[in-house]
From TrEMBL:
SUPFAM superfamilies: Cell growth inhibitor/plasmid maintenance toxic component (SSF50118). It comes from the Bacteria. This is Type II toxin-antitoxin system PemK/MazF family toxin. Pfam families: PemK_toxin. It comes from Thermodesulfatator atlanticus. InterPro entries: PemK-like, Plasmid_toxin/cell-grow_inhib. GO terms for molecular function: DNA binding. Gene3D superfamilies: 2.30.30.110.
Length: 53
């Protein structure tokens, strides 16, 4: 990745995400998550599908 480029996560990447605010009994705060959606989708839509681990 070059300096100044925006990072687009790819399927299988492990990231730290902030899951705040939480609702009910969900765990909040900074937690590891795995990316489930491909980078093409993430880059074009600006959205991604992640699963906390």
């Amino acid at each position: 990745m070059k300096s100044g480029e925006e990072y687009v996560p790819d399927r299988g990447d492990l990231l730290w995400l902030s899951f705040s605010p939480q609702k009910g009994h969900e765990q909040a705060g900074r937690r590891p998550a795995v990316c489930l959606s491909p980078s093409i989708y993430n880059g074009k839509t600006g959205l991604g599908l992640f699963c906390p681990v």
